[in-house]
Task: structure prediction
Amino acid sequence: MKNENLYKYILGIADNSLILGQRLGELTGHGPTLETDIACTNISLDLFGQVRSYYQYAAKIAGDERSEDDIAMLRKEREYLNVLLVEQPNTDFAYTMARQFLFDVYHFLLLTELQKSHDVTLSAIAKKSIKEVSYHQRFSSDWIKRLGDGTDESKAKMQTAINALWTYTDELFHQTEADKAMVLESIGVDVTLLKTEYYSKVNAILAEATLEIPNQNGFKKVEKKGFILNIWGIC
Amino acid sequence: MDMGVVRSAVISNDVVKVEITPTYSGCPAMDVIGDDIKAALKAAGYASEIELILSPAWTTDWITPRGRKALEDYGIAAPLGPEADKDVLLNGKRIVKCTNCGSQNTRLVSQFGSTACKAQFQCDDCQEPFDYFKCLK
Result:
């Protein structure tokens, strides 16, 4: 493939949203309340809408007979380039919201920068998506605060979820070879530069939620090598 | 047209080229809107091509006064300005007008409504539940 780095770069972004969207989609009809059920599935729908644009573009770059659906759905597990955070299961609502929050803060920072991409298609998708993601971020941050600064039980559950998922946050800032190549061409975002702002934003919300900031040692060191968990939660 | 979804329509070589843009990325209505435009143009004797564009990104500012009225008549409260929108969605302010009785004694039930572009509200005077079209800038 002529533009393999660009193709892989697009998938790196799209796969995160696809897998997270699938996880949220599992809650259709199973959310803890009707309102949160609708919220999670609406966020899922936004993410699927966004990935459609990415996969359509990836299909164009690939230039073979594969359609957007083929690229989205017909790869082997290990060919997905998502980070581990997004595939973590919906253990309980605290986990679902903590996962969402830890991803949304990153996603918003990524799209803020991607709007400046020299690739006009990626820039257009970012400008469109960021409006939706800013709303996701508000929603998930709100739940972190509500459960963190809530009852003893909700606080304990949210702290457990944040502690458990914290280990996956460092991977958000790892770069693949394709990522690095795209940064050099001013197409991709240098995610390493987002890390300081990410943790300062996340920590500020956790503090507001009266939650403890987990000890930053012991991050998972797996680098975008596809599913470690099975998507349907059968490990 | 009144929702700002149709961005342009140009006739060249007897084919009408229409550009449409989604309100939200995942809007499931886009295929139907495209098909409806095609069918309407066909009925009027024109061949057409529909193109989905993303840039510039859709904003609620593009809803025309007639579009806003049509939303209200249907039972969907039209979007407020960005500051007022934040106040009702995040700070619990009661200013969204009930589409049934016009009272502003309304409260947010859910930040997401029946679709991603709307939030769910209820009127505390007439008890009517209704959708509010969220401001998107």
Remarks:
- Chain A has one domain: 4-208.
